[in-house]
Write a structure and sequence with these properties.
The structure holds two protein chains of two kinds.
Chain A (H helix, E strand, L loop, with lengths): L2 H20 L5 H26 L1 H27 L2 H28 L5 H19 L4 H18 L1 H6 L6 H22 L13
Helix pairs in contact in A: 1-2, 1-8, 2-3, 3-4, 4-5, 5-6, 6-8
Chain B lengths: L1 E6 L6 H7 L2 E3 L2 E3 L5 E3 L6 H10 L6 E3 L3 H13 L3 E6 L7 H15 L5 E5 L4 H16 L4 H12 L3 E5 L4 H5 L5 H10 L1 E8 L2 E9 L1 H16 L6 E7 L3 H15 L8 E2 L2 H7 L4 E7 L12 H7 L1
Parallel strand pairs in B: 1-2, 1-6, 6-7, 11-12
Antiparallel strand pairs in B: 3-4, 3-5, 8-9, 8-13, 9-10, 11-13
Classes of the chains: A mainly alpha, B alpha/beta.
């Protein structure tokens, strides 16, 4: 078996670890750091697959994963600094990221076969919702939007491939997206029975 | 006997001023950068905020009282043989404390036998107002200036002030949030909850929607005060949102089974210019009777040495 292919699987498992861990974290700063590291290994995984099977097929995925890594790590820096100025920079960066995703998504939708165009359009919408959900306050938006996003990614990696007549599914990709969904389920299962913590705490007089 | 003076940051009403026998040095407001109006004298709070609400093009500014304003206010009291306690808005929010300190320094040279204590509230609006109310109680209870100053400092250290705004527009005008933040925050209905911490305004949390913000604040306030109900006093301030403030008051009073000592307060320009119409403020502190003063050798001597 190709060594790069084995390395890709190892990187995939590391990605799963970080992605799973990130959705167990309530603190936004730590979440962005952990998911950012996960995205970095995710990008490396595509590079390794590219080295194993040919880079041209993986290029768009490498770009997408790099985009995700940069976004998460920039947000980590912004939330860590937590000043009005850093938040303004973060928001401008978010809008830029949304614009990039819109352009890339529109191109993907237009280039997709007509019968599955709707699914790619749905992918674009859920991806945008996820990027916004990551930035919104609280613990719920990011988890709800990531589940929708992961479900659509899973759909694009299974039925679409059948439609294409291509049965070489990206098993590791499916495992990574499934890990996010399972992690969100575990998060809610863990906290469902715990006494509710106040979202806002005021200082004692 | 001593006289109590505060800058307009305390948001006392004219009725409060007369009833409690305190003097207020107002802040200045300008709409055009040239005509400076004294808040509460040349223009009322309601008039000011109604203009802000109806004319979005206005870019008002506030200015602190000058040292001369303090000198003019201090002189007759010192000439009458009274000592003076001056309470100011947080020195990190305004230059009023600096003006007061400069004026006090000059007046002490002129009246060496008199004592002037300038106390930084490290708060503003209703937070400063609560400290002022405790100072008044101490004066009325016959406390000396020294004892009042020490205990007022202890009260100040228990004072917490939070506020939430209806729109990010005014925070943007004041340079506290950027253009993009205000724009996107407006679309998403985000409401920041701010805290005056160590005298400075810091953003504590951002929540979506007014109802959600009020629910969280109410919960946080009840949790913070639950164990000290008999030892605390609290107040709620508003800008053209009296109904919301009164509803809030009723909810807190019911949850804690306690009565608010002073009525809901109309927030003034010092904080209100940055918060804008629709803002609500929440403040609480320990009563002076529940505070232990820091036993320094002499508050006055130490301050004079400084």
């Amino acid at each position: 078996m190709n060594t790069w292919f084995i390395i890709a699987q190892v990187l995939g498992v590391i990605t799963i670890g970080f992605e799973f861990a990130s959705y167990q974290i309530k603190d936004k700063t730590r979440y962005f750091l952990v998911t950012g590291i996960g995205s970095f290994f995710w990008a490396l995984m595509f590079v390794a697959i590219g080295l194993a099977t040919g880079m041209s097929t993986q290029l768009s995925l490498i770009v997408a994963a790099t985009y995700s890594t940069i976004r998460n790590l920039v947000f980590f820096g912004i939330f860590k600094k937590n000043t009005p100025q850093s938040k303004e920079i973060g928001l401008n960066f978010l809008l830029f990221m949304i614009l990039v995703a819109l352009v890339a998504g529109t191109i993907t939708v237009l280039n997709a076969p007509a019968e599955v165009r709707w699914l790619h359009a749905l992918g674009m919408v859920t991806a945008l919702a996820f990027v916004i959900g990551q930035y919104l306050p609280g613990v719920h938006y990011v988890r709800i939007t990531v589940v929708f996003y992961a479900v659509v990614v899973l759909l694009t990696q299974t039925p679409i491939n059948i439609l294409y007549g291509d049965f070489r599914w990206n098993i590791m990709g499916i495992a990574i997206e499934s890990a996010k969904i399972i992690s969100v389920a575990v998060f809610y299962a863990r906290y469902a029975n715990q006494p509710k913590q106040a979202q806002l705490v005021f200082a004692k007089p | 006997m001593y006289t109590i003076i505060s800058d307009g940051g305390c948001d006392f009403t004219k009725v409060d001023v007369v009833r409690h026998n305190v003097d207020i040095i107002p802040f200045y407001i300008t709409f055009d950068g040239e005509t400076h109006m004294k808040e509460g004298v040349d223009i009322s709070k309601d008039e000011y905020f109604t203009r802000l609400k109806t004319d979005k093009t206005l870019n008002p500014k506030t200015a602190q009282p000058s040292p001369q304003d303090y000198i003019d206010m201090l002189t007759p009291h010192l000439q009458a043989g009274n000592d003076v306690l001056v309470l100011t808005i947080s020195s990190k929010l305004s230059g009023s404390h600096n003006s007061a300190t400069l004026a006090a320094g000059m007046m002490e040279e002129e009246f060496p036998s008199r004592n002037i204590v300038v106390l930084d509230s490290l708060s503003a609006s209703i937070g400063q107002g609560l400290i002022l109310r405790e100072i008044i109680k101490m004066r009325d209870a016959g406390f000396s200036l020294e004892k009042t100053a020490k205990r007022a400092e202890a009260v100040r250290n228990t004072t917490q002030l939070y506020f939430t705004v209806d729109s990010l527009e005014f925070l943007k005008k004041g340079g506290r949030v950027g253009t993009t933040t205000a724009f996107v925050g407006g679309i998403l209905g985000l409401r920041p909850i701010l805290h005056i911490q160590d005298g400075q305004a810091v953003q504590l949390e951002t929540v979506r929607g007014k109802k959600n913000a009020y629910r969280l604040i109410e919960e946080a306030m009840v949790n913070a005060l639950r164990d000290d109900v008999n030892d605390i006093q609290f107040n709620i301030g508003h800008i053209l949102s009296e109904e919301d403030a009164v509803n809030f008051q009723v909810n807190i009073e019911t949850a804690l089974s306690v009565q608010m000592e002073s009525p809901v307060t109309s927030i003034g320009a010092a904080i209100g210019t940055h918060a804008g119409p629709g803002a609500l403020a929440f403040a609480y502190c320990k009563k002076y009777t529940a505070c232990e003063a820091n036993e320094k050798t002499s508050f006055i001597e130490e301050r004079k040495a400084a």
